[in-house]
Amino acid sequence: MNKWESDILKELYFQKYISQRDLAERMGYSLGIVNKSLKELQWQGYINNEYKLTKKAQSFLERKKTLNAIILAAGYGMRMVPINMETPKGLLEVKGEVLIERLIKQLHAVHIKKIYVVVGFLKEKFEYLVDQYGVELIINKEYSSQNNLHSLNLAETYISNSYIIPCDIWCKHNPFCELELYTWYMVNKVKTVESNVKVNRKMQLSKIANSEFGNQMIGISYIDQNQADKVKKMLKNFDGDRKYNDSFWEEVLFSDEKIQFWAKIVDENEIVEINTYEQLREFDSNSDQLKADALEVICKVLNVPEGGVRNISTLKKGMTNRSFLFECGKKYIMRIPGEGTDRLIDRRQEYSIYQILAGKGIGENIIYMNPINGYKITEFFQGARCCDPYNMDDVKECMAKLRVLHDMKLKVEHEFDLYGKIELYESFWNGERSVYRDYEETKRKVYLLKPFIDQCSKDKCLTHIDAVPDNFLFIHSDNGTEQTMLIDWEYSGMQDPHVDLAMFSVYSFYSKEHIDKLIDIYFQGRCELETRIKIYCYVAICGLLWSNWCEYKRNLGIEFGEYSLRQYRYAKEFYCIASEMMEEL
What we know:
By secondary structure, the protein is α+β, with helices and mostly antiparallel strands. The protein has 20 helices and 23 strands. The strands form 7 sheets. It has a 7-stranded mixed sheet, sandwiched between helices. Strands 14-15-16-18-17 form a 5-stranded antiparallel sheet, covered by helices on one side. A 3-stranded antiparallel sheet has the order 19-21-22, with helices on one face. Helix 2 packs across helix 3 (31-44).
């Protein structure tokens, strides 16, 4: 049975047959296709001479009843900044209804009660759906490091006669049905270069080149029992391959093992995808969600009316914070503290540092900072770039900037205690053991380095602590030169300034050879052996420090992959290096 025959059989199941012409008009098919399909259905024994369904058809259709729906709602919805800082995009209120609630109600309207919702970011906010609508929640603990391909794989056991639905869509009319006869994927008639699929002459989806225009993908799909096993197999294969961590589940559509997806085409305004703040504002200008706390701050600080904040776009998610770019005449960046940051950063201390740095030409110019919640607004520098840690010319400029900072001998009231922070981050594990089997032994060895560090002469001053390549900006000046700026001072405090060299090294994944080059650049070839060994000790200590930090973040569902592993290796390897050199010294 082909697509057209299936569609007509389904129509006959739900609608009283009047005439072939009426059927053609209702379905948008030519009269020739309708006539041919009816004859084929008769020949196959699904309808009789009066075009009524036979017992064979009734039995066939009973097996095709929709069993369940899987709603994917685990991700950050990063493009929804700044709303996503407070509300998961599935819980956005659009035209008086919560997006995911509208979807659930539409599913209930066609007797689909088995609904699974895959959640991750702010998962607790979805819990009420269990009692109110009888849904079942599936927790994606890796929502921060993997895309919705992983989310769907977590629900793969339920895939069979199933709808797959993104949580961020608003459907004007109910797109769901208690009966579906084949696997399909929904697109609309709009052609866009952002799509990588098009509808071919056979009404199937085919992949296109990046430069071509394709049908805009909606995201709703239906997978019937005939294709379910293939889809499950491909989900498992793809989810087990790290190169697909950032992939959408639609990647299985284009696997080598062909999965037949028919195209379900809808009109442009029938289903709206709410991906960005700008789209929500355009679609529902009265939504209460538009009055996000961060936007109210922007309007007040920059003295612009509601709606004056334009071209909002997310920036790359940082390790500690989330930030977004926006325009109010000029371009600005707003920083929003990330998950669990309130336990890591004292925003009052950060605020005091920016006051001390003001006018000294070292850090960024702060337009606004809230010392309570950490919201921060800075000017955006067009064309600015970060330091390349493997470009020695860049590294020389960065080390020169660090020397200027350290030579100022600036003082603040608080200290960044390395060993104290190791203990603090470990305490955030809530009694759980480290994921590393030899953690206690590694920690014991790192603590053996403390007496040597304590005996080394060191003058503490304001130290950046997070002096990593990403926090050194090269800004183009009007005269063609580049200015170096050191940004993001939230971890800063009183400490041995040489800690900054260790921090730069561990973030850059430097080998010992590269670390030695960095030390020689900073000290201009005049570093004493004792100081060099001390910096090796700091590399080990900082490695354990940030490894503990990563373990805390992992417990929040935020995974840093290789970065976390490399930090732990620094703790182990540079303990050995420093210990051996201490014995020789």
